[in-house]
Amino acid sequence: MDERLRHLKGSMKQSVFQNLKFTDKHKQAIKRQIKQENILLPALQLLSVEKNGIELVQKLRSRGIQEFDEQEGFVYILLHQLEQKSYVTSRWKEDQKKYYQLNSKGKKVMKSLENGSQRSAFVLQGLLGGGQ
Amino acid sequence: MNDLLFALVEQEEYEILLEEAMNEYGQSILQLVYSYVRNSTVSEDLTQEIFVKFYNSLPTYSKQSSLKTWLWRIAINHCKDYLKSWYVRKMQFTEHIHTIFESSKEMIEEEMVKKEESEELVQTVMSLPLKYRELIYLHYFEEYTIKEIAELLSINSNTIKTRLRRGKELLKQMIEEG
């Protein structure tokens, strides 16, 4: 058996692994995923306390996240999507601004991201417009 | 301010490490994952998740093991968690193992026999129960020593030797029975 198993490597490369290729496409997807999580988790954490869009951008910036600096409108896309997925609830206040706060479903998602549960993280893929 | 600067430098280093790890080990991890889950689409998804997990784990990397060992451990645990999950236990995702060896008319009989034997070996290894399959794969494909496997899986060396022997017996038996 040992003798035959010595050929296992070559045999597998010529068969089951022949069409299995780690490509740039995979690398890009991994980087995109990391970038999304880098924004998503802090955003969810910050929304534990009710905030409007501008406040969220400011707080994210103070955490070193500059993705929204050039295009602040992007934060409303994120907030809208979080609302669509019912991770946050929103209401209009007297100052004519919309305020968002994390709800119980959002808290669960936040916890699983904090625990590094990638499976739930993958459910979130596409939330920021990336994904596949 | 210094703290912030330090954090930024660290983050940049992590990104470089991730890039290097993907270039160096991406293909090996994809194959390793396949040896566990036996499905190419699932392998691609899990491999992506593994590298994200690896990146997120870099702040806690203690340098007691090599970075490669660290990555392999994350990968193996991730595969096992996946196989244990409700989702997988309820449904069988194992795809039919295609053994696509090139065959041609010019092949002489001796080569044909060799090809068939190779196909049979791969098919049988891939159909072994997980605890034997992972050892056969790590030892014969990845060429890890018993000691290295023990470190990787946190299992006693003697247990690994016994299991490897049992695995080979089983493999022999399965091949003979065809």
Automatic annotation (TrEMBL), chain B:
Signal sequence segment: none
Keyword field: Sigma factor, Transcription, Transcription regulation
Record-level GO BP terms: DNA-templated transcription initiation
Pfam family, one: Sigma70_r2
Domain of life: Bacteria
Protein name, UniProt field: Sigma-70 family RNA polymerase sigma factor
Originating species: Priestia megaterium
Domain RNA polymerase sigma factor 70 region 4 type: 119-171
UniProt family annotation: Belongs to the sigma-70 factor family. ECF subfamily.
A molecular function (GO) term: DNA binding
Domain RNA polymerase sigma-70 region: 23-84
SUPFAM superfamilies: Sigma2 domain of RNA polymerase sigma factors, Sigma3 and sigma4 domains of RNA polymerase sigma factors
